[in-house]
Amino acid sequence: MKILTKPEELLLLAICNLKENAYGVEILKYVSGKTGTEWSIGSIYVPLDRLARLGYVETYQGEPTQKRGGKRKRFFKITKAGLETLLENKKVQDDMWSDMPGLVFGDN
Amino acid sequence: MNKGPKIKRPNLALRLLELTADDSYNHSVSGDCEEMYADILIEHGRIKAFIWMWKQVLRSTPLFIFNSFVWSIIMISNYLKICMRNFRKNKGYSFINISGLAIGMACCTLIFLYVNHELGYDKYHADADRLYRIVMNIKMGVSDFGIINTSGPLVPTLREKYPEVETAARISTGFRVLVDRDNSLFYENRFFYAEKDIFDILRINFIKGNPETAITRKNTMVITVDMADKYFKNEDPLGKIININRTDFEITGIIQNPPENTHLKYNIIASIHNHFQKPEDMIYWQDTYTPAYIKLKPGVNAEEFREKIRQIAHNYKGDYFKKRGWTYTCLLQKVKDIHLYSRQSDELEPPGSILYIYSLSIIGFFILIIAYLNFINLSTARAAYRAKEIGIRKVAGAQKSQLIYQFIGESLTISAIAFIFSLLLFVIALPYFNSLVDRNFTISILFRPFILFSILFFIIFSGITAGIYPALSLSRFSPAAIISNRFSAGKSKSTLRSVFVICQFVISIILITGTIVVFSQINFMKNQHLGFDKEQKIVFSARINNNHELIKNEFMKHQGITGATASDGIPGRILNTITTRLIGGEKKEIIMPHLFCDFNFLDEYKIEMAAGIKFTKNIISDIGKAYIINETAARSFGWKNPEDALGKILESGGRGPEHRRKIIGVVKDFHFSGLQNEIGPLVMIQGHPGFRFRIISLTVKATNLTETISFIENKWKELKLGNVFVYTFLDEDFDRFYRSEEKVSRIFTTFSCMAIFLSCIGLLSLSSFIAAQRTKEVGIRKVLGASVPGVFFLLVKEFIKWVVLAAFIASPIAWYLMNQWLLNFAYCINPGFSVFLLSGLSLLLTALVTVAFQTIKAATANPVKALKFE
Fold first, then answer.
1. 8 A C-beta contact, residue B617 and residue B606
2. Residue B232 β-bridge partners
3. What is the pLDDT of residue B75?
């Protein structure tokens, strides 16, 4: 099982949550909003590229618009393998979190 | 489509992003950016939007670049895998390719090292650009020669009267001296006398001692580290005394050994005061003593100075020279240029030759070209078989640029592997190369930064250039054609390929012709009728007092010795040149070599007479004072017929009746120096009774030579003829004239063989490829009734055409080059048409033999099998 990096994981989650609206601009806004930091376009696309090569996301083209200078939108969709990896990663994390005693209550 | 308000696009920023982002998503990247830019523009205005855009660019660009880089590396490992797979699949071809390239590179590196070394002589001196040596060219009647010695008054005059000269110093030529160290005797070469100013001109590093004072007093000398080790293993040599040529010298300094790349190699440098006995003798401009070196002041125009000193001897002694019709010219040479360009007759070390360097560089270049043409030919030829792989890659989305990178990468890999092999070859070949060119290169030379850098550049350049053509032609294939099998696996005829092969053949023919000509010329010179007999002669120096007859008889006692004679010089080593004057008749004065000899010298050496009589044993008063001159001498005094010289009186070695002799005979010209030069005039004098001859020549039988030699050595010691017995065979000694030509011959032969070998390697692969290509054609022809020889001839026709065409192109070039080289020789062969025929035929034969195996296999193949695979 592949351990996803933090950006990869967050992006996968974003893609799942955005459903049909999962393209560059929206993903960037969503992730920036959730994490509280401004992500750059590069920090979105590079991990996405890797996810695509690994086969965890697939892409499809949208319609070009004037606003985008005539360029198409590129939509992302999580694949079955991607979903599986995401869930496995969550399981590992939950497991490790639950091992930690009393953190939730603020004492060591 | 809704047309929103006109928005100005941040073009530059977008362009930057598109540049760095990967092909597969860069449009969506810039699209997304434009969208967000538009939003921010509306909401926050121009400036905020502008700032946002550039922030994006600055943050994203490094990420994109890094990403591309990482993926390229991953792709490269894939390419490498494919590359290795290709190698294993075609072990034969790959091995041939790599080894061909490796040999080419190794040869080239060796040659490059040598050329680099030769070009860098004497550059290490301080202010090397201002250092010059002055040499003299002397013309006296028929004699015209150049020497490195200069007139006595030259250096003092330069010091006093020529302000352009910052420093001037004299250093003698090298001598062989007898060293007596605690009663052990050694001969030592490279013993020089010098003025202390020489240390200001040439960089001679003192380890111990003071250059200012070391050799200013008489009987002082400095020695090199090697000499110190030899004579004073663990002691400090400073202050010790060694006896040289019966004079005691005090050692006043230790100097570093001279480096390899200098024209002046020394073992010992002693005070000039031991060389010049009487300074007052130094005032004659017509007498030459030592070489002179100068350092010009900075800013002095060398050309002007050169002109200024050219006639310096005539400025001071013009009348003297004019009366005799002599010319003494001074030439200025840059010290840096001495090794490669100076060709005086008495150079200190065997000179290099700039022509030689050029030729060698060209040969190295040729070899490299052949290796690369092979590589390109082979890669393109094999390319066809990779069509499927290329087709699939293209279908899978490979860009043309990616394919090109892949193939260039492959050839770079091959280049790098070949380079590693060539390093191995280099290390193995280095000792042989050293003996071939008489130098002492070590592997450490490779590690100098300049060399490393050139090699790196070399590999990259060669990898790319060798890979470009196959890469471009391969990536052009269209996947559709490949997959539908409409694509035929490569053409069997290709103009470019023919051009490459013809180039290789042209180079090979030129090299073969060169080798043949050099070889013939040397043979010619060695076997040329010299006019005297040099076979079976042992010569050695002897200290004879006045009993040469007695000594001769002592040696003749041994049955292995059939003749003995004494003289003051031998053919090849006639040192005395003396002014000779004609008495009575026209006033003529010429400097000529003089040979003092015993009466039977002419007989022993089988020298023939042209007129008159020989010397006789009993010195009759009339004939006792007699000259025998050679034909050239007779002509230079103005006598066209040898008979005209008989009876005339000449004077030499001084003035007055006791220095005059009658000419009693004229000998036919014989070569007393190498065949590179015209025969000069020669005067022979019979030594009077009691004459101190210095050389004994013995004619020996070929059988039991070792026994004879040990007899001679013992007799020599018994008769106390000297200190250390050293002898040579005259024919070997004489052949030293041809040493440099022999070196040229060996090098030419070696590298020609390399070049031809490489061409054959190329031919081998090519022929098997072409044979494989034409299997179908051959099959059909055989089915239609062609015979095996017929098919064979058909297949080799192409190769024969190549050789013939190459021969036509190569011949005029080779002709021109060879004639240029032969101009160096006064006596040379006449390379006729036969040379070209010979080289063309030998190449043809070699080519045929190389391709024979593959083509015979193809010609005898079973046509059924050939036509079966489709």
1. no
2. none
3. 78
Q: What are the residues facing B146 on neighbouring strands?
A: B137
pLDDT band at B20 (very low <50, low <70, confident <90, very high): confident
Residue B486: exposure state from Cβ atoms within 10 A (0-12, 13-18, ≥19): exposed
Separation of CA B44 from chain center:
77
Cβ-nearest to A41 among B3, B33, B38:
B33
**Can you give the pLDDT at residue B399?**
74
Nearest to B34 among A40, A46, A67 (CB): A67
**A65 has a chain B CB within 8 A of its CB:** yes
Q: What pLDDT, on the 0 to 100 scale, is given for residue B2?
A: 42
Q: What are phi and psi of B679, to 5 degrees?
A: -70, 130
How many angstroms away from the CA of B12 is the closest CA of chain A?
14
ipTM: 0.85
Place of tokens 């007093």: B217
Cβ pair B42, B50 in contact under 8 A: no
Give contacts of B64 with chain A, Cβ < 8 Å: 42, 45-46
Number of Cβ within 10 Å of residue B571's Cβ equals 25
Q: Are A67 and B34 in contact (CB under 8 A)?
A: yes
Please list every residue in chain A whose beta carbon sits closer than 8 Å to the beta carbon of residue B67.
46, 49
Q: What tokens were used for B89?
A: 């699949």
In our burial notation (b when 16+ CB lie closer than 10 A, e otherwise), range A8-32 reads bbbbbbbbeebeeebbbbbbbebbe
Q: 3-state DSSP call for residue B611?
A: strand
Encode B138-202 in three state secondary structure: EEECCEEEEECCEECCHHHHHHHHCCCEEEEEEECCCEEEEEEECCEEEEEEEEEEECCCHHHHC
- Cβ contact (<8 Å) for B28 and A40? no
- What is the mean predicted confidence (pLDDT) over B835-856? 80
User: Which residues on B lie below 8 Å from A63 (Cβ)?
Assistant: none
E strands, B463-559, where? 537-541
**DSSP designation for B256:** P
Contact predicate A73/B10, CB 8 Å: no
CA distance A2 to chain B (A): 18
Structure tokens at A4: 């996803």
Mapping DSSP to helix (H, G, I), strand (E, B) and coil, where does residue B248 land?
A: strand
Nearest alpha-carbon partner for B627 in B652, B656, B657, B655: B652
What pLDDT, in 10s, does the model give residues B525-559? Answer: 777 777 888 888 888 888 777 777 888 888 888 88
Q: How many CA atoms lie within 13 A of B723 on its CB side?
A: 12
Q: Are B381 and B372 in contact (CB under 8 A)?
A: no
Enter the tokens of residue B250. Answer: 């005090």
**Predicted local distance difference test score (pLDDT) of residue A103:** 59
Of chain A, the percentage scoring pLDDT greater than 70 comes to 94
Averages of pLDDT over runs of 10 residues in chain A (108 residues) are: 90 92 91 93 90 90 79 89 93 88 59
Cβ of A42 within 8 Å of Cβ of B63? The answer is yes
List the single best residue of B3, B6, B9, B35 to mutate versus A (max A Cβ within 10 A): B35
A40 in B contact zone (CB under 8 Å): yes
How far apart are the CA of B393 and the nearest CA of chain A, in angstroms?
Answer: 17
Q: Between B739 and B239, whose confidence is greater? A: B239
Q: Residue A56 and residue A82: Cα distance in Å, rounded?
A: 4
Q: Which of B35, B56, B62 sits opposite A67 (nearest CB)?
A: B35
Residues 6 or more apart in contact with residue B313 via CB below 8 angstroms: B136, B151, B154, B285, B286, B321, B328, B329, B330
- A25 and chain B: CB distance < 8 Å anywhere? yes
Please judge whether A28 and B32 are an interchain contact, meaning their C-beta atoms are less than 8 angstroms apart: yes
Å between A87 CA and nearest CA of chain B: 27
In our burial notation (b when 16+ CB lie closer than 10 A, e otherwise), range B12-22 reads ebbebbeebbe
Please report the pLDDT score of residue B125 as a whole number. 92
Rounded to whole angstroms, how far apart are CA atoms B437 and B742? 11
